[in-house]
């Protein structure tokens, strides 16, 4: 899947808003707000349950990594996520 298509599919899911569980949350992290080197995915099956966490890292911006973005789409689809949340911007890590 190409990068633009993957990003559009994720954005479409995010725009739907909260529709219940299962829920997938995406948050990007980096040393600067310009480059996200990590993405953390939280999967919550039901309300009040502990989320499962998975992290992907890259030396370059993960938001521009075709493979990582395609994997995120596949995770969302396979989880049959009713809600997808994406934290705006890049959270700074030290």
Description:
By secondary structure, the chain is α+β, with helices and mostly antiparallel strands. It contains two helices and four strands; from the N terminus they run αβββαβ. The protein has helices at residues 3-15, 66-78; strands spanning 23-30, 38-44, 52-57, 83-92. The protein has a four-stranded mixed β-sheet, with helices on one face. The longest helix has 13 residues, at 3-15. The mean pLDDT is 96.
Helical content class: 25-40%
Q: How would you classify the helix and strand content by structural class? A: alpha+beta
Detail the poorly predicted runs. Answer: none
* Major beta sheet summary: 4 strands, mixed
Which percent range describes the beta-strand content? 25-35%
Q: What is the arithmetic mean of pLDDT? A: 96
Order of helices and strands: HEEEHE
Overall tally of domains: 1
**Number of contiguous helices:** 2
Number of strands: 4
Distance between the termini: 32 Å
Q: Choose one word for the global shape.
A: globular
Roughly how many Å is the radius of gyration? 13 Å
């Amino acid at each position: 899947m190409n990068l633009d298509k993957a990003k559009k599919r994720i954005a479409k899911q995010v725009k739907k808003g909260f529709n219940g569980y299962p829920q997938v949350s995406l948050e990007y992290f980096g040393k600067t707000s310009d480059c996200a080197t990590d993405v953390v995915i939280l999967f919550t099956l039901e309300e009040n349950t502990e989320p499962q966490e998975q992290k992907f890292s890259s030396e370059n911006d993960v938001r521009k990594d075709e493979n990582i973005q395609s994997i995120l789409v596949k995770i969302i689809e396979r989880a049959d996520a009713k809600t997808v949340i994406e934290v705006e911007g890049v959270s700074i890590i030290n």
